[in-house]
Design brief:
With 95 residues, this protein is an all-alpha fold. It has three helices and no strands.
């Protein structure tokens, strides 16, 4: 993939990811699985890694979640909530 193809693919991935993030986080109406979303996000991360000049300042690869819903009360967790960064295999978890 050359830089122009990478730019076009990154733009398309950003559009798709923003659309699906809005459906998931703000409308509670996902149309794709978490796995499919994560795979698109990983593809965008790889493009941005290979072509750092294509990374936008507001890239979804640097964001977590969407807008918080005000229906819920704030909670203080006794233990910090952690993430496995979307690990999909035992090897990724070990890493």
């Amino acid at each position: 993939m050359n830089e122009e193809q990478a730019r076009q693919r990154a733009e398309e991935l950003r559009r798709q990811l923003e659309y699906h993030a809005k459906l998931y986080y703000e409308m509670d109406n996902p149309q794709i699985s978490d796995y499919e979303y994560d795979q698109m996000l990983r593809e965008l991360e790889e493009i941005e890694k290979q072509y750092p000049q294509l990374k936008s300042p507001d890239s979804l690869t640097d964001k977590v979640g969407g807008a918080a819903d005000n229906k819920f009360a704030k909670v203080v967790h006794a233990v910090n909530m952690e993430s496995l960064q979307n690990a999909f295999s035992a090897e990724e978890i070990r890493d």
